[in-house]
Structures are given as structure tokens and as C-alpha cells.
Amino acid sequence: MKKFILLLIFVFCAAFLSSCYDKSEVEETAYMIALGIDLDENNEYLYTFQFASPLSSYSESGGDAPSGGVKNISVSAKDFYSAKNSAINYLSKSINMSHLKLIVCSKEFAEKSVKEHIGLFMKEREIRPSTFVAVSEDKAKSFLDAVQPEFESSTSKYYELSNSEKMLIFAPFVRLSDFLNASETFDKSAILPVGEIIDKENSKIKPALKTATQLSKMAVFKDYSLLKILPEDDARIYNLLSGKEKKLLFSFENEKNQNKTISYDVLLLKSPRFKVEEENNNLKISVEILTEIKYVGEKLPEGYNNIEEVLSLCEKQLEKRIYNFLKMTQSDLNADILKLKRFYKFKFKDEDSLKKADFEKKYKNAGFQVKISPENFYQSNISNEIN
Amino acid sequence: MKDRFVLKKWELTGLLINLIVFKIFTGDIKCFMNSSNSAFLSTFFACLVFYGVFWFLPVIYEKLTAAKLFLKLKKNSLVRFIFGMALIVFLVFSFKKYLLEFANFFNIAAFPSAPFTFIAAFFIVCAFISSIKGMDAVIKPNSLIAFQIILFVAVSLLAVLKFSDITNLFPVFGKGIKETVMTGIDGLWFFLDVLPVAFVFGFYENKKELKKTVRCAGLTGVLILLAVVLFSNLIIPPDIISKIQFPFYQIVQNVYFGRFFQRIDSFYIIVLTLSALSYLSFNLFLMSYIFKKIFNLRNMRVLNLSFVLIVLLLCTAF
Prior knowledge:
- The complex is a heterodimer.
- By secondary structure, chain A is α/β, with parallel strands linked by helices.
- Chain A contains 11 helices and 16 strands.
- In chain A, a hairpin with a 2-residue loop joins strand 12 and strand 13.
- The longest helix of chain A has 25 residues, at 307-331.
- The interface between A and B is large, with 36 and 46 residues.
């Protein structure tokens, strides 16, 4: 019994006391919550570190301070660790990256290559694989400077909320590990959400604050370099096809009255089912979507006599959108961003036979077929009166 | 130091499970992966072969085991000396390898600013103290180790189920059937450290239940290993796994439960510490025990310190 107690004491010491060696006090540590990467004029990297500053999250009058409880510091350096050391020297605090929520890189930086940095961040023990990554259309520094949550006093929590699967409607949901996994497999194509500073004059949104940002659109990468930025509509179709978004609202112009739009809700009942079939050395890629489609409107749109007619139009419209998206990724981007090869490799016993089949070559000429299977046309208290 | 003790059912079970699975916490688990989709099949094959051998281990022990043969060999015989010394050399190098492996993990994941030798010394001192206090002190915590490993692995794997992609398992034979089998055969060394456990079978309290206990523990260990490899394969694409130093740690880093329970990987460090200490202490005890038997020594206490110094010297030399 004595020995058992003695051993328990040692185990206790091993688990709890050994960390005293490299302890760090909270007040001696700066907690990084976001990181921006740009290219500066000298072709060096410009790193913007965004630190949580809990004391600055409340103004003197008692309300929330406009800073959102963060402070930004930018450092030019040849590599990340040199910049981090410069920041430590300047702040006189050790930097902790355990709470890093977002890594943003500028478009110019992404166009070169993000490989080195992504690999480094994945290996960095303090950075979680679930950290969000995004591309900024403007400079990453400007993006981080412009971040001001409208209804959240903690910027860190705002990042968590704005990057969650539920809240990302106009951009894909991608974590650091997802990006690395996608960039290393098959044709090495990957996607990231795009962050933009809201231009108050031209944007649909008119925020109350001086500056505001949002994540919308989708950046397509191939071999770690930015290929193209796709509009938010494409990002929504991607979310639907990848099964990450279960409920989406779409609108399209009413052909019979071009001043009005027809809106409909799409509720995915199951994740889209892809099939990749081969006929005479040609690929046929089909996708079947089991869904509920609901017309959103109080009255029937102008020019339509019954709800079935409207819903059938919505179904065709959705089919067309998905088809166009698949065709665009195939012909314009030549990138398999949905990783359709996954559904092709089932048929092969080993990698050699898969390699010989040359999916990448066949994918360029593949035909697409989209089938929407509406389980239920939903309608709620709709009157047949024309809108 | 006493070399007479009684090994109870859960203590032997825990010891065996830990010996089979302690390497899942290190980078050694990659030996089954070979950047191929067939990692699970290779592991399954290796586990099948290993379990076949392991199934007969208690039978061989009862009939004509290496351990029994060794212990019954004529005292001061040359065969006994050579066989014993070969085993000790194997145990010393195995001790050194895993000591460095554990210290390396701690250096990367927990104490990046601590000197490497400091961490290695911490493990070695703990192993020395526990083995010097007798086998009782080494084996008692083993009854808890099996439970905590099973619980930790099960919770971690279930929590990351949502990140899994079944298509990572295809093409099923990866680089070909031959390569899959060869990777499995290569992976058999993974189980090499388990076999010397036969030396302590003689201390089991219930000789009649030995077969049942050993087989149940072996099956549990093998299933844990298979589950970890399967999930590593499902979550991390095979092209990436070779670039990751500790695949299971990478998987555990993805685990979180809501906003409050975010850093579940800290439990990994506790589980690894207990698992490592159990293995290192057992290894050190076995070294001293075999050495004592070869030279018919009375006291094992001095031997522990000598072996600790040898391992420390080896660590600094290589």
C-alpha cells in the first residue's frame, strides 16, 4: 500500500508539477487571436499579429470599446519566427498562439504560394488544426484593422461565430487541416473562404460601425497557389454539394416579370450522392440531391397559376445552377474542388490501376448530370392570388 | 529489491495491454501506414500474425518457454549467459529508443523550452525509483492503465468520427496486395517488446486462468491498435500521414466538446506519461531480473542504478 501511495505521488508530480519548468504567467503573455500575412514593398512578409487585449474591451464610460478588445501589431520579416521574435522584443511579453482563431493572407501572397506557411502552422504545436484560414481581397493588415464585431464585444468569439459552419452562408467552411488535406490529395486543388472589407457605399450591407468585414466568396487554390476567386453564389452551391449546408435560400429573376424575383428554400434531406461512371473511356458524373423545396412567398408569383408550376421551375433552376457550377470547375478552373475522384477510386483494387485509369485526363471531358429528387414540395398557407 | 511478487488478473491484463499499445502514442504507429490507403489491412494482417503467436504464448510457456528454459538452464552455463545477455542488450536498446521517443514528444508537445536531457532524466528517474521500490510498485498502477487507455482512445476516436472520410480506405490494397502484406510483415517488429512479458507469467496468481487472461488482454490490445490505425486512415489522407510525427496526437488535437472542453490533447500527455512510465519501469525491472539470474546475484537494487547509467550514457552517445 505504501508503495502504491508513493507511486501515486510520483504520478501526481509527473502530471502537475513538471510544468513548473516552463511556466508562463498570464500577465506576462500576449495571446494572439488572429494573424495576417501580406507581402510588403521589399518582397518580405508583413505579419500582422492581432492580440487579445481584455482591458481595452470596455470603454471608460462603461460600454464596449470600438476596438473589440484587440490590438494589432505589424512586423516586416523574412520568416514567421523572426517576426514573432521582433514582436516579443517589442511587447516584452511572450506570445501564446493557443487561442489563434483566424489566419488571413492577402490575395497577392496567396497567388505566390502558401505552402511553406501552411506546413509550418500545421507543425506548430500551439496552433490547432481547427484554426480557420481565409484569403483577404484587400491587404490582410487592412482586413484585421477593419474587423469590428457589431454585436459581440469579444473579437475572439466573433471569429468563432463568423467562421462556424452555421453562420458561413456565402463562403465555404474550411479549417487549417482541411486545407492541407485538400492541397495534398488528388489534383491538389483546395478552397478557402474570402474575407472582404465592406465598402459602405457600394455594398448591400450598410453597417452602423465605421469599418466592417465579412467572409463571403470562395478562393480556389491549386498546388497551394491562388487560382481564382469565385462569387458568393458559387460558394453556396459548393456548400450545398459538399453537404455542409443543409438549408439554403435561393432567388432568381421572374421571367414573366423581370422586376420581381422568385425565392425558394432548399432543405437537404441527405448529403448529395455522387456517382462516377465510365462508358467507352468517357466519364459520366451524376449527382442526385434528395431535397425538400419550399417556395418562399405569400402569394403566387406573377404569371403562374399554381404552386406546382412554381416549384417545378425552382427545381429546374437549381439543377441549372448546380450543372453550371460543375461545368465551370471542370472547364474554367480544371480543378476537382469537390474531390470527385473519391467516388471513382472505389472501383480499383490498387493505386497502380487507379493511376493507369488517369482520372485527371478523363475529368476534363467528363459529362455531368444533375438530378434533383424533391421528396416533398412544401407549401405553407399560400393563396392562389397573383403577386 | 524483492523479485518475488504476485501478479493479479487486472495487473497482468493492464501490463499486457500497455505493452501492446504504448507505441500508438509515439510515431512508431506509422510503420503500418506506408503512405498507402491499405494501412488498416496491413495492420490487420500484422495483428492477425501477432495474435496467432500471442495466443500460443501461454501454451508455449507452460510446455517449453524461452523464459522457463532460460530459468531452468544450468547455472553458469554459456548458453544461459549468451541468451540472457542478448535479451539484456535488446531491452537496453529498446529502453533507450522509447525513452528518447517519449522525451522527444514531451519536448515538442508540452515543454518546448525545457532541455531535452531534463525531460529524459525525469522519465529515467521515475522508472528507476519505481523499479527500485519493487515490482509491486511497477505493476500495481497497471490495473488502472488498461481502463484509462481504453477510455481515452474510445472517447477521442468517437469525438473525431465527424471528420472521417470513408473514401480514404480506397483503393483497398493501396500500393498492391504484395506491398500491403509486406508492410504488415515489416510491422511485426511493433510487437517485439511484448514477448519478454513471458518472463513474468510465472508470477501470475492463478495459473489455471493464465491462458484466458493473456488471450483476452491480447485481443483488447490488438483491437485498440486496429481502431487507432483505422481512424488515422479515415481522418488523415495517406499522402499526409508520413509527414506527421505523431499521427494519434494529431487526431486527438481535433477533439473538443463545446466551448469549454477545448484542449483534450492535454489528457494525451497524462495517458502517455503513465503508459511510458509503466513500460520503462517494467523494462528496467526485467533487465535487472535477467541479469540477476545469469550471475546468481542476491540483490537487484544496485543493478537498477547501473542499467540507468548505461542507458543515460547510450542516450548521450547516440
